[in-house]
Amino acid sequence: MEKSIINPWTWQDQLSYVQAVEVKNTTGTLYVAGQAAVHADGTSSNADMRTQLGIAIQNLETVISEAGYEAGNIVRLTVYTTSSQEFIHNCFDLFKAFVARHGMKQAVTLLQVVGLNETLNVELEATVVK
């Protein structure tokens, strides 16, 4: 697999994402459904957003690993949240640590939504290549 990062500017670097990722010569593409703070028994977390983000990250990492892919090869990540302000002010450091831990270079979209399933307030949807 070959990845090329397209960044006409540098300001996005501090936000832990890139403007575009071109991928060539892949052997597979994994489209991961939104992963949220749902426990192994299927119950949704009612914890604060920061705690929920930690669980969502773990769930995303688990799905990617079980499929035989690596989180470092996430090329597209969509973050759904019920409050973009809370995500940016209370959770962004956790998000940045996740990106740094895997050496990710991914295109990101952050969306504030009216609601998520049950008590959930953050969800991560990813595209991963191999």
TrEMBL record:
Task: Report the Pfam families cross-referenced here.
Answer: Ribonuc_L-PSP
CDD domains in the cross-refs: YjgF_YER057c_UK114_family
Highest rank taxon of the organism: Bacteria
Q: Which PANTHER family match?
A: BLR7761 PROTEIN, YJGH FAMILY PROTEIN
Name of the featured protein: Endoribonuclease L-PSP
Tell me which species this is from. Dyadobacter fermentans (strain ATCC 700827 / DSM 18053 / CIP 107007 / KCTC 52180 / NS114)
